[in-house]
Amino acid sequence: MVVRWAQIWHNRSSVAGSSSAGIVSIFLVRHTAPDIKPGIVYGDSNVPVHEEEFARVMPDISAALPSAALVISSPLSRCRRLADFLQIASGEREVRIDDRLRERALGRWQGGTWEDIPTEEMAALRANYLDYPAPGGESVRVLRDRVVAAFEDAWSAALGRHLVLVCHAGPIACIIAHWRGDFLKPGLRPMAGCGDVLRLDGGSVRSVSFLRRASPIDGRDDDVI
Questions:
Q1: How does DSSP classify residue 64?
Q2: Residue 5 has what pLDDT?
Q3: How far apart are the C-alpha atoms of 102 and 170, rounded to whole Å?
Q4: Which of 14, 24, 20 minimizes the C-alpha distance to 201?
Q5: Contact criterion met (CB below 8 Å) for 24 and 213
Q6: What's the pLDDT at 15?
């Protein structure tokens, strides 16, 4: 797996390096803080962003990213708005939407608090992290499979260009695990906070680095897997 990724990275970087675009880079951006009561489970529902926080951090997020890039976003409004800002900030950013980048659907858990989830359901999730679906929602494995497919399609579409993916904590964790060849598990590090910008670094050793590390508003970091 490491050899395969290293060769793909070398081939794509060589193509990009033959143009003025330089070496292709892949960036992951998590949406800014939502304006929602702390502790609420929101999953793949649409929730508004915190307006003051959005206005404060968006110039920094845009500045951390290349001015010319293919930007692919989750369809959820908290990501769409960020992607639209990036396009307005630089006309050389093309924005596309991929439904597969949305956050994990948490079914009946959404709209309640984490404390409202029945004890037996949380126990079942801990016992079978990858394959236990939230009632009426998705399992982590289903989330991972659709996100990885979206990531690989996006990378192919961006050949010769920088790629920016605007999405959520769950999809970002899936992409990082896939990139590094890690087993997807609870608490996988690094974990993206609201407004964070990460870069995937290629080569024989695949790593992840933060270009912008946000200070998310307390209690509004709840769309986790």
A1: T
A2: 46
A3: 9
A4: 24
A5: no
A6: 39
Q: Are 137 and 43 in contact (CB under 8 A)?
A: yes
Average pLDDT per consecutive 10 residues, the chain (225 residues; last block may be shorter): 45 41 81 94 96 96 97 98 98 98 97 95 94 96 98 94 97 94 78 93 74 59 49
**Do strands 93-97 and 69-73 pair parallel, antiparallel, or not at all (unpaired)?**
parallel
216: Cα within 13 Å, side-chain hemisphere: 23
Closest CA to 163 of 21, 59, 55: 21
Closest CA to 159 of 47, 13, 1: 13
CATH number for position 84:
3.40.50.1240
Give, in degrees to the nearest 5, the angle at Cα 134 between 32 and 111: 50
- Assigned domain for 220 exists: no
Total domains, the chain:
1
